[in-house]
Design goal:
Layout: E1 3-7, E2 10-13, E3 18-25, E4 33-39, E5 46-52, E6 58-60, E7 68-73, E8 78-83, E9 92-99, E10 111-114, E11 118-123
Parallel strand pairs: 2-11
Antiparallel strand pairs: 1-3, 3-8, 4-5, 4-9, 5-6, 7-8, 9-10, 9-11
Length: 124
């Protein structure tokens, strides 16, 4: 049984930083694309950062490029999202997700496994 558990969300002021963590268990596929998505109230879910197996490739949405960094520690089965220079528009529920296959970013429908989400709130 695959489980993804996020942690690290919270409330910060604009300009602050947070680091999200996603602990992955039960994932036995040899290849995967890990991703962080976010969804604000009334808005569609948005993919913000992606990392391929072994961390060889990363990809960022334009809205977070230069401010967010995705990384992973495969020994700890954990994916991180370091978020710096946070803005009020970064306020959302953040989800960790996993997709198999060779493409990274993967199509949204390929993300079979999702965490429960962690709330990030940025005040001005």
């Amino acid at each position: 049984q695959v489980q993804l558990v996020e942690s690290g969300g919270g409330s910060v002021q604009a300009g602050g930083s947070l680091r999200l963590s996603c602990l992955v268990s039960g994932y036995t596929y040899s290849r995967k694309c890990m991703a962080w998505f976010r969804q604000a109230p009334g808005k569609e879910r948005e993919g913000v950062a992606y990392i391929s197996t072994g961390g060889t490739r990363t990809y960022y949405a334009d809205s977070v490029k230069g401010r967010f960094t995705i990384s992973q520690d495969e020994a700890k089965n954990t994916v991180y999202l370091q978020m710096n220079s946070l803005k009020p528009e970064d306020t959302a529920m953040y989800y960790c997700a996993a997709a198999g296959g060779v493409f990274c970013p993967a199509p949204l429908n390929d993300y079979r496994y999702w965490g429960q989400g962690t709330q990030v709130t940025v005040s001005s």
